[in-house]
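Give me the fold.
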Amino acid sequence: MSDARDSKGKSVEERFAAIREYFLASMKMAGHGRTELYYRPKAGDAREPTEEELVRRWAGAVAVSVEAIEAGVQRGFEKAAELGQVVTSFRYCVPHIVNCATEAAPRRVPL
């Protein structure tokens, strides 16, 4: 268990709980009845991370704020709605989270 904390003092487990709760609340608002993250791997030889593993990875990325991650989740749901698509997994939101995290990262000015 890591004792890493983010800039607001949240532990990785606290971050995981907050991200999971936000994602599942977003799912509920979009009309999905699911109440847990997928935690079993898909069948097949190619092992992709489970939904729970993905959320845990983002929770462990303490340099990225929970707010940036939540903004990415929100953007993912908004984009899906614009395109007439449905978010069925946290995986759909990852590119949007990456964009939000990149936008939120401090800019370094070359000397």
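The longest helix spans residues 12-29.
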